[in-house]
Amino acid sequence: MGGHNAGEIASALAAASVENYVRAARHAPASAEGPQDARPLSDAARCLVAAVRKANADVYEIAKKHPEHQGMGTTLVALQIARELGEVNIAHVGDSRCYRIRNGQIEQMTRDHTLRNDAIGWKPNITQEELALLPANVISRAIGRRPQIDVDVRTETAVPGDVYLLCSDGLSGMVDDATILRCALHAADLQYACDDLVALANQAGGQDNVTVIAVMIEPA
């Protein structure tokens, strides 16, 4: 999170925590569920939510125990492909995004957890003038700021040819969706697309760290 302490440590710790949890769950599925979730989730999706909650707890505990890391936090977006179920699970906290590119169209699959978006949820008829009075870049949810965290998760059918693009707001805040789509469609491969998008964000001002990952669903 820009402007907060030890963000690079929080983000690295959260990513490692999610990866380690999911890897361990493959060998111990009975213990992978974590806290029960009221939502009708598959075992794979429930495991992903539990992994993000574990990451939040890990970052929070490190920040609490080490004064030099006090206040650190990070946004997080995670993609899990459950081939045996034919599903794609997306979990996120904060304003890092997941897009899906299908049939030449781009769709944002996550909802930014920001003060402005929350205000729209609280007051659907809020005016643009009222929204403009709120800070633009204040996130309302982040990993590591509180001992418990709400995790947004959605499940989609895995369709061959779909491209899922995960990014930090260092990209989405500098490059519009139409340009992201055009770059993804015209690049020689997904690695070139990611490299080009990072370059475009930097050329536009590069006001924040830029992270981009792209995954294509291939036939089973």
Short description:
Helix content is 39%, strand content 18%. The protein is α+β, with helices and mostly antiparallel strands and 220 residues long.
Kindly estimate the percentage of residues that lie in beta strands according to DSSP: 15-25%
Shape: globular
Topology order in helix (H) and strand (E) letters: HHEEEEHHEEHHHE
Please summarize the sheet with the most strands: 4 strands, antiparallel
Count, helices: 7
Helix content: 25-40%
The average pLDDT score comes to 90
- CA-CA gap between termini: 37 Å
Radius of gyration equals 18 Å
Structural class: alpha+beta
Which segments are poorly predicted (pLDDT under 50) over 5 or more consecutive residues? 30-34
The number of E-state strands comes to: 7
Structural write-up:
The chain has helices spanning 7-27, 43-65, 115-122, 128-132, 169-172, 177-186, 190-203; strands at residues 76-82, 87-93, 97-102, 105-108, 152-157, 163-167, 212-216. It is an alpha+beta fold. The strands form two sheets. Strands 4-3-6-7 form a four-stranded antiparallel β-sheet. The longest helix has 23 residues, at 43-65. The protein is globular, with a radius of gyration of 18 Å. 36% of the residues are buried. Residues 30-34 have low confidence and may be disordered.
